[in-house]
Write a structure and sequence with these properties.
The chain is α+β, with helices and mostly antiparallel strands. It has 2 domains: 44 residues, no CATH class; 41 residues, Homeodomain-like (Arc Repressor Mutant, subunit A, Orthogonal Bundle). It contains 5 helices and 4 strands; from the N terminus they run ββββααααα. The chain has a 4-stranded antiparallel beta sheet. α3 crosses α5 and α4 packs across α5. The longest helix is centred in the last third of the chain and has 12 residues. The N and C termini lie far apart (36 Å). 25% of the residues are buried.
């Protein structure tokens, strides 16, 4: 059973949850607006809430390039500020935090 909790107009990472679209395989799907590029994308409520999906697919791909993550990790090791890294790569600071957490765990 899908739970119809109200996510409308709430922000999850880089996604603004909008209208409920449909329920597929018990997953409630929301139309979301990507705050990085302004595109609309459909995301399941559980991926939104868990943070598995943080932006639209193209922005998600953009921020998870292995080469880019390697550069970000070496900058973190050199002691570069997270805000500077985010600015340089044109990504959200939350992405840098995630990479940092993954690299240091
Ligand atoms: Zn996007």
């Amino acid at each position: 059973m899908a739970v119809m909790d109200d996510l409308t107009n709430k922000i999850f990472n880089n996604l603004l949850a909008m209208e409920y679209v449909e329920t597929k395989n018990t997953h409630a799907i929301r139309e979301c607006k990507c705050l990085l590029c302004g595109k609309f994308t459909n995301v399941t409520a559980s991926n939104l809430k868990s943070g598995n999906t943080k932006s639209c697919a193209s922005c998600g791909q953009k921020v998870t390039t292995p080469e880019m993550e390697k550069d970000i990790v070496s900058m973190l090791i050199e002691g570069e500020k997270i805000s500077n890294i985010a600015k340089q790569f044109n990504i959200d600071r939350s992405v840098v935090y995630r990479i940092k957490k993954e690299a240091l765990s």
